[in-house]
C-alpha cells in the first residue's frame, strides 16, 4: 500500500496530522531516567531507549506517526544505533508510522546501502533525504516506494541558514523552488489512491509564505513540516502548507512534546506533561485547519 | 594540530595523496571471507570488519589515510555500526588518518549530536558533510576543528546527476560555485601552518574543468577527490585540483583497490591484488603531479 495513502488513513483514524519527533537528548531526560551525568554509551543508549518507548506509550493513541532522529541515537555509538532500531520496531508494534529522520544522501551504490540499512535492517516506513546529489542518489529509494515505503526530500529546511544555498536566486526563481519542481516530477509516478505521492518534501514551518508557494509547486507532494513549537512556527502559519481537503501535510513537534515536563509543572509525572502537550498540539492544528477531512470527528 | 597539517605531513611521509575508500559490499568480498550468501547482520558485519582490517594491514604502509563509507556498515544494522567503529579504531592504531564518509547534514542541535557521534563515540579524524542546510548546520563541527579534526563539504560530487542542483545557474555562476565561495569563507579561520584549512571540499574527479575552476575559488581548501578509477576519473585530469606545491588534494579509490582481486588474477591471494592496485595508483598519481613536494623521494 502506497505510503501517502497509509499516512492519510492514519491521519483520519487519529484525527490529526501531528507528528511527534523523538530527539532524545540525554541531558534533557527526566531525572528518574538519567542514572548518571557522564554515562557510558551503553548506559545512555539504554536510557534514551526507555524514554522513547514511554513517550510512544503516551502518544500512540493520539498521533499517526513518530519521527525518531537518528543523530541523537548515533551520539552513543553502535549501542545508540541498536536503541534506534528497537525504538523504531516498538513504535511500529504500537501501530505508528515511523519516519526516520536521517537526512542521508549519497551516490548510487552507496545510496543502495543506505536504503537497505533503513528499509531492511531498521525496517522503517519513511526516511528524510537530502536532494543535494540529484536524482541518481534517490534511485535505490524509489525501488522501495512500490513496497509501501516513502521518503521526504529536504526542499526548504526550517533553520535560518537554509538561506545560504536554498534561497539563492536562479534565472527563474530560487534554488529551493527548482528543487521543488524536481521533487514534483520525481514523485509523479508514485501517487496513491488518495492523490498524494510517496515522495514527500520537508518544508520548514518557519517560512509560511514559502510554504504557500511550495504547495502550488508540488500539489501532490506530502509535506513534512518541522519547526512547529520550539523553533517558533505557529499553527496558523501552517495552513498554507495543507493541500486539498486539508491533507498532504504532517506537522512535527519534538522538544515541545517529549520534554514538555521542563515547562509544564502540572499534575502527575513527566508522561502526563507529554500527554497534555500532545492534546494541545492536536487542538492547535484542528483550529488552524477547521475544514480538514481529518477534523470532522 | 590542524587536520590539514596532519594530512600533509602524512602525505609527505607516505609519498602519495592516495586515499583508500573502504566500501565493503558484502557480495563482493573474496569467497574465503564470505561464509554465507544470505548472512545475518551479525555474520555480515563480522565479515566486513575482518575484510577491512586486512585491507588496512596491506595499505597502511602505502597511503596516508582511509575513507570508510558508513553506509556499507549501516546496511547491517547496529552490528554494522559496531564494525565501523572497530575498523576506524584499527585504522588509527595502524597510523592512518580516518576520513569517515558519512555525508551528514542537519540543523544546529542535531548537527551537534552527529558531531558527538563522529568525533567522540566513533573518534574519527575527519568527516564528509552536506552543505545543503547552510552554515548553522556546520557550527558544531567547527568546534572540533580546533582539536585537530576537520571536514570535507560536498561542493561538486562525482555522480552524473550532481548536475540536477549543483550545476544550476545563479546570476553570477553555478550553485556549486556559490557553495565553493561559502566553503572558502567558512574555512578561512582554520588554516594551518602549511597553508591549508581543516575545512575541505569534496570535488568529483569526474569533472576536471570544474576542478580547475574550484581550485581557483578555494585556494586554501583541501580537496577530497572521489571518482578516480572505478567511476572513470583519470589521474591526468586531477592535476588541476592540486594546489601550491602539489598539495591540497587527496584522491580516493574504493572498488579499484579493495576489490582489485576481481580483475587481477595475478600471483598470490586477494591481498596481493590490493597491494598491486595500491602501488599502481601511487605511481599513477606520482606521474600526474611530477613536481609535487611529496613526490621527491
Quickly list its features:
TIM Barrel; 8-stranded parallel beta barrel; homodimer; 10 strands; 15% strand; 297 residues
Quickly describe the structure.
In chain A, helix 5 (108-121) links the parallel strand 3 and strand 4 (126-129). Chain A is of the alpha/beta class. The first copy, chain A, has helices spanning 3-14, 41-59, 71-74, 77-93, 108-121, 139-145, 163-166, 175-187, 208-217, 255-258, 270-288; strands at 18-22, 65-68, 97-104, 126-129, 150-156, 169-170, 173-174, 199-203, 223-225, 249-253.
- Shape category of chain A: globular
User: The CATH topology of chain A is what?
Assistant: TIM Barrel
Strand order of the largest sheet of chain A: 1-2-3-4-5-8-9-10
Our count of helices of chain A gives 11
Helical/strand content category of chain A: alpha/beta
Q: How many runs of DSSP E, i.e. beta strands of chain A?
A: 10
Sheet bearing the most strands of chain A, described?
Answer: 8 strands, parallel, barrel
User: What is the level 1 CATH name of chain A?
Assistant: Alpha Beta
Task: Catalogue the unreliable spans of chain A.
Answer: none
CATH architecture assignment of chain A = Alpha-Beta Barrel
Quaternary assembly: homodimer
Most extensive chain contact?
Answer: A-B, 61 and 61 residues
- What value does the average pLDDT of chain A take? 93
Q: Determine the strand fraction of chain A and express it as a percent band.
A: 15-25%
Order of helices and strands of chain A: HEHEHHEHEHEHEEHEHEEHH
What's the name of the CATH homologous superfamily of chain A? Aldolase class I
Q: Ends of chain A: how far apart?
A: 25 Å
Taking Cα atoms only, what radius of gyration of chain A do you get, to the nearest Å?
A: 18 Å
Binned, the helix content of chain A reads: 40-55%
Amino acid at each position: 500500500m502506497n505510503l501517502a495513502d497509509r499516512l492519510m488513513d492514519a491521519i483520519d483514524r487519529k484525527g490529526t496530522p501531528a507528528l511527534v519527533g523523538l530527539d532524545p537528548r540525554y541531558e534533557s531526560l527526566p531525572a528518574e531516567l538519567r542514572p548518571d551525568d557522564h554515562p557510558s554509551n551503553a548506559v545512555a543508549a539504554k536510557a534514551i531507549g526507555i524514554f522513547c518507548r514511554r513517550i510512544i506509550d503516551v502518544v500512540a493513541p493520539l498521533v499517526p506517526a513518530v519521527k525518531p532522529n537518528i543523530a541523537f541515537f548515533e551520539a552513543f555509538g553502535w549501542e545508540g544505533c541498536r536503541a534506534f532500531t528497537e525504538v523504531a520496531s516498538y513504535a511500529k508494534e504500537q501501530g505508528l508510522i515511523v519516519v526516520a529522520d536521517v537526512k542521508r544522501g549519497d551516490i548510487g551504490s552507496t545510496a543502495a546501502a543506505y536504503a537497505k540499512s533503513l528499509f531492511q535492517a531498521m525496517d522503517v516506513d519513511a526516511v528524510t533525504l537530502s536532494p543535494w546529489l540529484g536524482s541518481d542518489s534517490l534511485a535505490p529509494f524509489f525501488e522501495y516506494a512500490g513496497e509501501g515505503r516513502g521518503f521526504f526530500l529536504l526542499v526548504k529546511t526550517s533553520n535560518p541558514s537554509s538561506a545560504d544555498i536554498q534561497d539563492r536566486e536562479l534565472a527563474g526563481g530560487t534554488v529551493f523552488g527548482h528543487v521543488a519542481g524536481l521533487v514534483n516530477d520525481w514523485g509523479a509516478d508514485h501517487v496513491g489512491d488518495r492523490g498524494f505521492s510517496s515522495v514527500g518534501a520537508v518544508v520548514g514551518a518557519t517560512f509560511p509564505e514559502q510554504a504557500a508557494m511550495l504547495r502550488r509547486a508540488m500539489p501532490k507532494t506530502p509535506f513534512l513540516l518541522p519547526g512547529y513549537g520550539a523553533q517558533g512556527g505557529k499553527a496558523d502559519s501552517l495552513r498554507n502548507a495543507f493541500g486539498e481537503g486539508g491533507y498532504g501535510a504532517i506537522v512535527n513537534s519534538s522538544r515541545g512534546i517529549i520534554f514538555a515536563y521542563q515547562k509544564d509543572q502540572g499534575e502527575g509525572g513527566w508522561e502526563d506533561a507529554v500527554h497534555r502537550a500532545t492534546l494541545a498540539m492536536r487542538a492547535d492544528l484542528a483550529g488552524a485547519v477547521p475544514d480538514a477531512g481529518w477534523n470532522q470527528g
